[in-house]
Amino acid sequence: MALIKKPVTGMKDILPEEMAIRNYCIRVIRETYAKFGFSSIETPAVEHIENLLSKQGGENEKLIFKILKRGEKLKLQEAEKEEDLTDSGLRYDLTLPLCRYYSAHAEELPSPFKALQIGNVFRADRPQRGRFRQFTQCDIDVLGDPSCLSEIDLILATTTVLSRLDFHNFTIRINDRRLLKEAAKRAGFEEKDYEKVFIILDKMDKIGMEGVRKELLENYSESTVNSYLGRFRGHADSLTDEDIAFMQEVESPLPEIIATVDEVKTADFRIVYDPTLVRGMGYYTGPIFEIAMDEYGGSVGGGGRYDEMIGKFTGQPTPAVGFSIGFERIIMLLLEKGFRVPGEDRKRAVLIDKKVSAPRLAEIFREAMELRNQGQVVDISRMKKNKKFQKGQLTDAGFYEIDEYFE
Question: What predicted TM-score, i.e. pTM, was given to this entire model?
Answer without folding.
Answer: 0.87
